[in-house]
Amino acid sequence: MLKLSKTTDYGIVLLAQLASEPDQGPQNARELAADAELPVPMVSKVLKALAREGLLVSQRGSKGGYRLARDPERLPVSEMIRVLEGPLALTDCAIGPALCEHESACAVREPWQQISRVIEHALSDITLADLVRRRSIGATTSLTLQIDRSPQATDAAR
């Protein structure tokens, strides 16, 4: 099963919440936690991580809080996941060399690496704005992933 951690899930929920109310100004952890119905300590932890990685801007003071550091149209899901979860990969060998002792003799190493690249590419095509737009219009459309198996696409993925 491919599954995101609760931290990553909550982080994306909080980013979407900030993106859906851009005119509201900075929001503090307590406000965001109440709106998202999430625990304040977890929200504080996630917001600090997002700010440390440059996805949010933190503003101190009585009217302080957090706001997005850039336009939601320029924030891909793949980056949100990478910041909160780490590298996008289904197996260790897709992260980098020498992480698996069986790497040199593995018959499925390259296919897993290609699958990981396809997933990362698909997630990089979806932005925070897309997530918010789908939520706000209540769309039930599904995303379709098409894998190009032509020799040119396979060579380009390597």
CATH architecture: Orthogonal Bundle
CATH first level: which class? Mainly Alpha
How many β strands by DSSP? 2
By DSSP (H or I, 4+ residues per run), the number of helices equals 8
- The general outline is elongated
Termini separation (Å)?
25 Å
Order of helices and strands: HHHEEHHHHH
Largest sheet: 2 strands, antiparallel
**Unreliable segments of 5+ consecutive residues:** 137-143
State the strand order across the main sheet.
1-2
How many distinct folded domains? 1
Q: Which whole number gives the mean pLDDT?
A: 84
Within the CATH hierarchy, at the fold level, what is the topology? Arc Repressor Mutant, subunit A
Task: Please identify which CATH superfamily we are dealing with.
Answer: Winged helix-like DNA-binding domain superfamily/Winged helix DNA-binding domain
Radius of gyration: 18 Å
Name the beta content range.
5-15%
Can you offer a commentary on this structure?
This protein is mostly helical. The protein contains 8 helices and 2 strands, in the order H-H-H-E-E-H-H-H-H-H.
